[in-house]
Amino acid sequence: MKNPFIGTGVALITPFRKQETIDFSKLEPLINNIISNGVDYIVALGTTSEAATMTETERRALQDFIIETVGGRVPIMLGLGGNNTLAVRDTIANTNFDGVSGILSVAPYYNKPNQRGLAQHFKQIAEASPVPVIIYNVPGRTGVNIQAETTLQLAAECPNIIGIKEASGNISQVMQILRNKPEKFMVISGDDSLTYPMMTMGASGVISVLANALPKEMSSMVKYALKGDVKKALPLHFRMLPLMNAIFDEGNPTGIKALMEIQGQIGNTLRMPLVKSSKQLYNKISALYDEFNA
What pTM was estimated for this model as a whole? Predict the structure, then answer.
């Protein structure tokens, strides 16, 4: 069976109206656009979606809407994690996984478990989940790093853990995982700007923020990289690189929402405590987007 999470995944944003309610009328064409431009799968209710600011009712409504709109055209990975292992297990038990091909589960944040605690946390999630699990290492947000040895232990001991989204920014750590991992265990880039170099060493693709706005270009670059076609992948990487970096200057999804307003796709509304980009960054992104199109 083909792995559903090879290639380009999109960390889907959530459009909001000015009143900060979910703008489903903007979300539907956004989903259709990224699918028609070649993305391989969608990540729903991840960090970029601002799910942390939503009620449980909103998260369920958003999940149902995304599944219905996607309509089976591409696989869906569902963000489902937390820093309370028992609560995550309970959420899994009460989640409808119809239309969901896997879950993305972030390392526990705030309480800063050690490596043994991290390993036990993910083992319990893997045992509870009826669909494959991708662990998510993003120490810049969680305050804890899943070390390479822990990732490799989970890859070897938990058949239901099929990969890791690596957003540590630590290339040495990524190389250690890639060098020693089981053959079918995936390493997925969690940083747009590191996707190309990670894929040259064997990464399976990316869960991309920029692909919300540039799905065709990101998907093309990843497809070329998967084929080992450096001559076609590298120019696309360099063309997108200034925007890849700029959209994170003031955090995520602040930058990508500014870019997508510039494109005319959504309104530039975030939920507190996140705020709109500064005028300086907005103008910078606008100028870089003009340069990209030129």
Answer: 0.95
